[in-house]
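User:
Note these tokens:
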Amino acid sequence: MESIVTVQQAVTAFERWLEPTDAELDAIEQEMPVIEAEVDLLDVQISLLDRPASELDTRRLRRAAHKVLAARAALANQAGMGDAA
């Protein structure tokens, strides 16, 4: 039977590579408005799962979906401008 210590040594040998790099953290930071907008949209969708949507709920859903599209467009425009520079 294999000891758990040898497995732990194999896992901790790669521990320093498990952290995100600075470039990955920067990419996440740039995508944060999209992530937040998608979370807001998901919150609205979850709230509508167990009840019929009222007119106000429909507006909230459309507004959240529009926010996601706007955030994605802004991110795409930033990426496009970064490539041109």
Remarks:
- The mean pLDDT is 86.
